[in-house]
From TrEMBL:
SUPFAM superfamilies: alpha-helical ferredoxin, ARM repeat. The keyword ATP-binding does not apply. Signal peptide: none annotated. Residues 165-197 form the 4Fe-4S ferredoxin-type domain. Keywords: 4Fe-4S, Cytoplasm, Iron, Iron-sulfur, Metal-binding, Oxidoreductase, Queuosine biosynthesis, tRNA processing. Its EC number is 1.17.99.6. GO terms for molecular function: 4 iron, 4 sulfur cluster binding; epoxyqueuosine reductase activity; metal ion binding. This is tRNA epoxyqueuosine(34) reductase QueG. It is an enzyme of class 1 (oxidoreductase). GO terms for biological process: tRNA queuosine(34) biosynthetic process.
Amino acid sequence: MQPADAIKALAREVGFDDCRIAAAAEAEHADSFREWIAEGCHGEMAWMERTPERRCDPREVLQGCRAVVTLAMNYYPGSNPADGYRIARYAWNDDYHDIIEKMLRRMDEGMQALGGTQRFYVDTGPVLERDHASAAGLGWNGKSTVQIHRHLGTWFFLAELLTTLELPADQPFGDHCGKCTRCINACPTKAITAPHRVDARRCISYLTIEHKGPIPEEFREAIGDRLYGCDECLEVCPWNKFAQLSRESRFHAREAVFKMKTRDFLALTDEEFRALFSKSPIKRIKRPRFLRNACVVLGNTGTAEDLPALEKATEDPDPLVVEHAQWAIAKIKGRLPGRVA
């Protein structure tokens, strides 16, 4: 068996849904990435500014890098089980970083046995991973900048191993979006400012996860019932007609979370928050930001029944929670019959 075939067989054995190989080269959209950073479209994600040359070329990350082994893992967990709110599907249960990193270590061990030296990443390394995935034929980059796979749709994680092994590159699959603009049209905040270009400062995923301060009022109503992240541009993609439920149960909905109503989250202490979201990617944003998000959702969807929980939240020790709770109260009261905010 040739090394490339052995690597792909190992990927299937480990649990990945697809594995393809790209030659180590500068990322196709390196110049666009540099312009995007220069224009400040990355918002507060300052880590993206660091060592841009390393991020644009895997050969700057791993000395002697000859190939990039790109991997896809299906995480589609099905329809939303929550009552009154939405959480991005990737965050319904355990953190994918922890799950996939263990799988990558097994891949690394197998590739070491073939004589290679590797560095591997899942969403966290200095690598423009979607460009390398597209070059390898592991789907293509959609107009929303989300990677699309012909069998998995939009519901998959990307991971990669940079390697010194000399491996034959697979052929690209090409762009199959055609004239479709569903993702652009669906974005609630018009964050997709042009095909293949997203202004993170307008993106609901950025605002509810990466953004640390108050959510700008101009975007609060557009957030709607989105408690953490936003799947809108993923959900509307027509390629999802091929999506199937993930085999990995740790990506399926965590019952302890989804049995709660939005207002219930406001009562969580810091300890309770950390316990509820143990091993979850949601734990990373910490309690104040999550409660901030819950207040925004209640401001958009809440009723008089939610006011007592919000009134109590105005006494929270964190001013971020207080301000958003006050905003939510005003919004709900403004909707009540015969009442004004």
